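Q: Given only this backbone (258 positions), what sequence would you predict?
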């Protein structure tokens, strides 16, 4: 009866309600590493590494002019206001603008300015927006949690600090000694993405514990990186399998509500 989405959830939910999910799936399955690179418009002077306008242009090919008011059911995109930390719910106006704001990963994609507010990825405040559906008085809420097996349960590890290893002293360029085991240097983008993953994981666990859904779909995607869009085929297959396995429970919950 409604959809609330954050980040990639906002993109998928918006395309679904606009009747454009098939086009999104076809585009996702067509991505290769080379095609992804061609879609990224590098911007070293802006507020993010990539402007996002090439991706925006692809969205406009299929969804130009579509507004929330045109959708078949209520839809909410969750974003974060970068200057205040407020959680912003977008439920009216331009669908493309709202979706772009919801997936504007800080430091990677430029923020979206909307009605005087500077908006970034909603996963900073509400990665799995069960609370939005509850606020709309939905009796049954099904959540899709993409972070379920990302890090496992948060651990506290007592550890000793070894000698500082400067990267220029590493045995090979780009490798860092981590206790006689060498790992590849992450780079700036890698560090930002991994930090963002940790934030999403911890916030998701805290918010879902306080406001749990009636059912959770939890595809195990930890082996697929946040920027590995060329693996869409694999991710879609995993999501499909997890959903089909829960069809019986979903039907049971619907019967209880009826």
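A: Predicted residues:
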């Amino acid at each position: 009866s409604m959809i609330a989405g954050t980040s990639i959830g906002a993109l998928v939910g918006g395309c679904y309600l606009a009747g454009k999910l098939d086009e999104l799936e076809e585009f996702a399955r067509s991505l290769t590493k080379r095609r992804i690179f061609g879609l990224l418009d590098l911007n070293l002077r802006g507020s993010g590494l990539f402007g996002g306008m090439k991706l925006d242009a692809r969205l406009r090919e299929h969804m130009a002019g579509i507004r929330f008011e045109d959708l078949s059911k209520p839809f909410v995109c969750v974003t974060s206001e970068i200057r205040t930390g407020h959680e912003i719910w977008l439920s009216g106006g331009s669908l493309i603008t709202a979706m772009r704001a919801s997936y504007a990963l800080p430091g990677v994609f430029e923020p979206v300015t909307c009605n005087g507010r500077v908006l970034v990825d909603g996963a900073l405040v509400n990665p799995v927006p069960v609370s939005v559906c509850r606020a709309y008085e939905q009796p049954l809420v099904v959540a899709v949690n993409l972070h379920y097996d990302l890090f496992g349960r948060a651990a506290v590890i007592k550890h000793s600090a070894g000698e500082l290893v400067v990267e220029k002293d590493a045995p090979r360029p780009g490798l860092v000694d981590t206790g006689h085991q060498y790992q590849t240097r992450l780079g700036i983008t890698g560090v930002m993405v991994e930090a963002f993953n940790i934030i999403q994981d911890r916030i998701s666990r805290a918010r879902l514990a306080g406001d749990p859904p009636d059912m959770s779909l939890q595809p195990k995607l930890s082996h697929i990186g946040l920027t590995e869009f060329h693996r869409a085929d694999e991710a879609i297959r995993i999501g499909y399998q997890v959903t089909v396995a829960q069809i019986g429970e979903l039907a049971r919950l619907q019967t209880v509500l009826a």
